[in-house]
Amino acid sequence: MRLLFACLGIIFTSLFSPIGNVYATDNIDASINTAGSATDTVYVPQDVIEQLGDTPTIFVLPKGEEFYRNKYVQMTYIGVPLVLAGVASQQYVADKFYDLRYAYAPTYHCPIDDYLQYAPAVAMLTMKACGVQSRSSWGRLLVSDAFSVAIMAAVVNGLKYSVGTPRPDGSQNNSFPSGHTATAFTAAHILHKEYGELSPWISVGGYTVATFVGVSRILNNRHWISDVLAGAGIGILSVELGYFLGDLIFKENGLHNFGEPDFSIPQCPSQIGLTMGLQIPLASLELGNGQRLVSAVGSRMGVEGAWYINKHLGIGGSAAVASLPTTLESRPEEPLSIDAATIAVGAFGSLPITKGSRFRANAKALVGCNLMANTNIIPNVMQSDQAGFCYELGVSFSFAAQRHFGANIFCDYGAYTFTATHTPSAQHGMYRSGRHNYMMHNLTVGLATSILF
Q1: How far apart are CA 314 and CA 307, in angstroms?
Q2: What is the pTM of this model?
């Protein structure tokens, strides 16, 4: 009877309350007074009713939320965009991020990614062996994981030897996609499937390790960024398909239910994430005597985070590295570059643009310093000081896919200063001497993946 009156009350208020009052609330007890609120979707799981008897829980969803909880959306909303991004970035973006590696770590070599790719799987198996309750029984786990690994290996190797992309170090023609990254994200996503509902920070740890493996493959000059993005997507999709097949075989056998997944969105959008984008120069540098330094589109990668004091205002900062391919206008055949790292802090703002705050519009204003990675801008002719001042203004649109994971599309305007010493050179047509101040103006457009907390 209590359930009947609760449902009648919800139906009545949804018919006669204003449409704008929508509450995205999970686990609302039937005894809560719902007067003055309207809902778009109400579902009462049968098994919950049977378990709770006369005191059921009613789950209330705002309009549109059922889409994000759809089984097939959950299977594909991360993996498919990553694979598409890897394919789309092959032709143009991959070279830009290779320049970034060449500018900051041209001699880097560390084989840790050969071993770290298995770390999430080792963590998962260790926890399981120690008796920590996971999603699946041993039999169900082994079958689902076998499917996942087999699918990942077949797709990765099939693409490697059919696409034939040369590696950046020129050693082989099997660069796309990255097998190390696919393996790492397969292991991380299995860890997430088994223990993510126990604690989301277990998932965060696994994905962080997998991301480090992908970045390390780029630093080791073994892969392009397109290979890494596609490898990550393939790893995640392989696990989703492997577990889908395992679920078809085992149905409800050997399955531990941790309860309803947490899809709620944090009230304060605090986050930290990895950013990557294309940096577009907005002006050339006037060197005097009619000479100019002209920059082309470059790349930028970094880490950005913000802690929100309330729903709308936060403080935080960013650290990033950027590389701009550059030429002296009178000598276009001589490749140069302007490479600067920036560290900045400041204010962040955020406003929800959809019900439930799953989509948000964000802004930031940061100030800090830049560090020139390559001070010898024109060899023996133009040498810059190491440090300067920078500021950055930006807007972004963010999407909270789950409670602890999100993605951003951003556009940042930034400027940084540096002082350079000129030495006259007739060969370069440079007759200016002394010390001179410069300011670079850039626009960066890109994507970010974030951990929400």
Answers
A1: 5
A2: 0.82
